[in-house]
Specification:
Helix content is 29%, strand content 30%. The chain is of the alpha/beta class. It has a single domain (3-212), classed as P-loop containing nucleotide triphosphate hydrolases (Rossmann fold), CATH 3.40.50. Helix 4 packs across helix 5.
Length: 213
């Protein structure tokens, strides 16, 4: 297994609040890890740091062998992100959204068909994103995040607001992604643990324990 992400003594302060208090953790290719813990534990902060959307107060982040602080542009190309908020534009169709984002990663034409098949949204590729249900929009966002075949896929509170059937369908899609490192956050572990092979419990900005599933 090749290491894809390495965090060394990562700390993050917001004024007097210590959101992360020294997290050291590594991830390998094909590994699916859930970051679990109560609200305010530091899960989303850690995910945003891995996504290079937030700079740690101290510590080192290495992505695919590159120091994230010194090679942020290179590192971003290795990361796909699906968060609370959709990145899709309401007035564009699913396919138009994919092509818009695909330009940033030099996606080939065949790649749009591939990511649409992965999440089974071909029926809705010509539907405007603003007309999609919440679950379909989430599926389209996964397709967007897979453009460029990133080595790392980050899913923040992935199942929040989804019904059981849609959540199970999306969990099945995640199981089929064999090569990507997947890191996801949740405070409800039931569905996430269905496709992850490791859980990392975070409390008070510290790793409490790791469990192999």
């Amino acid at each position: 297994m090749n290491e894809t992400v390495r965090l060394v003594d990562i700390k993050k302060n917001f004024g007097h609040i210590k959101a992360l208090r020294g997290v050291t953790l590594s991830f390998t290719d094909g590994q699916k890890t859930s970051l679990l813990g109560p609200n305010g534990a530091g899960k989303s902060t850690l995910l945003r740091i891995i996504a290079t959307q937030m700079v740690p107060s101290s510590g080192k982040l290495v992505i695919m062998g590159n120091d994230a602080n010194q090679n942020s542009v290179t590192v971003k190309r290795d990361i796909g992100v699906v968060g609370h908020r959709s990145f899709l534009y309401d007035e564009l169709t699913v396919l138009e959204n994919l092509k818009f984002y695909g330009d940033f990663v030099d996606a080939q034409e065949s790649e749009y068909d591939r990511v649409i098949r992965v999440t089974d949204i071909e029926r809705w590729k010509d539907t405007k994103a603003g007309h999609l249900s919440y679950g379909l929009r989430k599926r389209a966002d996964i397709s967007r995040a897979l453009l460029g075949n990133p080595s790392i896929l980050l899913l923040d509170e992935f199942f929040a607001g989804l019904d059981q059937e849609t959540s199970s369908t999306l969990a099945d899609y995640m199981k089929e992604l064999k090569s990507q490192t997947i890191i996801t956050t949740s405070h409800t572990p039931d569905l996430i643990n269905g496709f992850c092979d490791r859980s990392v419990y975070i409390r008070g900005g510290l790793i409490e324990k790791e469990v192999k599933l």
